């Protein structure tokens, strides 16, 4: 077992010439993402520049989150990260592979060990020196490459499934547009169509408090998803043991980015800042999801803009004939079954990745 600090070195290159404008952040999924921070008027010359093969991480939130936000830049485009972040690189790729190191840093056991350095306090943080003291097992470079190759083969399959899922979702969207949008004049609706309110055809509920029996990690018993007002990881906040919503339904973000919709097909628990739409007739769920997803839903409130149950109940909505709605539901259900197959495969592949990460520490 070696010390990580013996194989890495800090990188501190500043964006003095302001040539780099690609600002990235790092999330708890250990991935870089385009930063949404408002940088108007910000002095970007103080930001740190990173390039392909270098790491960026944020130490100050480890005590609060129990996870080190860290990622490896894989593309050829230079990027900048906050001056509060740390950047580093592997000293010798012939001894320690950057890809192998990133796998090591993804291990939950690594996060647990680093969390102890923070003292487990919500405001506790760690520093680069603590990070360098962390142990790492370094097999031969050939073994590292084999491990990375196996992991990346699984990752590519997961990405392929994700792309297939996106294509299937786009097919359903196209079908909705063809059946309910193209050549439809709102002032002269087809025979049997009408304007109604969402409250006529669906029960509207607000999300509640976080369940008392709650876990941030999915287990055999804590396996009911708890959804919050977020789009990262489809709004997953954690897991619980008992569901509140069992019907197929739609959740809508009620604060922040108002109107963001997700179709929920399995039992779950919605919490604060979510509105839940439960169709009175299940065959409406697909139509309402695509309809609400394409509407410019706005909230109310003078202090903080938010979406309320009364807001949703009074929304005017086009209601096609029952026969057409059922036809759409049946067609999209076929697509959804195919999506579910790929999602289930990705769940198994993700579990396999977790096993590979766990084996690295043995």
- The number of E-state strands comes to 20
Helix content percent band: 25-40%
β-strand percent reads 15-25%
Shape: elongated
Instruction: Compute the average pLDDT.
Output: 91
Poorly predicted regions: none
Kindly give the count of domains.
Answer: 2
Strand order of the largest sheet: 2-9-6-7
- H/E series, N to C? EEEEEEHEEEHHHEHEHEEEEEEEEHHEH
CATH topology of the largest domain: Adenine-n6-DNA-methyltransferase TaqI, Chain A, domain 2
Q: Please compute the radius of gyration using only Cα atoms.
A: 24 Å
**Main β-sheet, in a few words?**
4 strands, antiparallel
> What is the count of DSSP helices, taking H or I runs of 4+ residues?
9
Structural class: alpha+beta
The CATH superfamily of the largest domain appears as DNA methylase specificity domains
Query: What's the end-to-end separation, in Å?
Result: 11 Å
Q: Kindly provide the name of the CATH class of the largest domain.
A: Alpha Beta
Q: Indicate the CATH architecture of the largest domain.
A: Alpha-Beta Complex
Your description of this structure?
The chain is of the alpha+beta class and 362 residues long. The chain folds into 2 domains: 2-137, DNA methylase specificity domains (Adenine-n6-DNA-methyltransferase TaqI, Chain A, domain 2, Alpha-Beta Complex); 194-319, Adenine-n6-DNA-methyltransferase TaqI, Chain A, domain 2, CATH 3.90.220. It is built from 9 helices and 20 strands. The strands form 7 sheets. A 4-stranded antiparallel beta sheet has the order 2-9-6-7, with helices on one face. Strands 12-19-16-17 form a 4-stranded antiparallel beta sheet. A 4-stranded mixed beta sheet has the order 13-15-14-18, with no helix packed on it. The termini are close together.
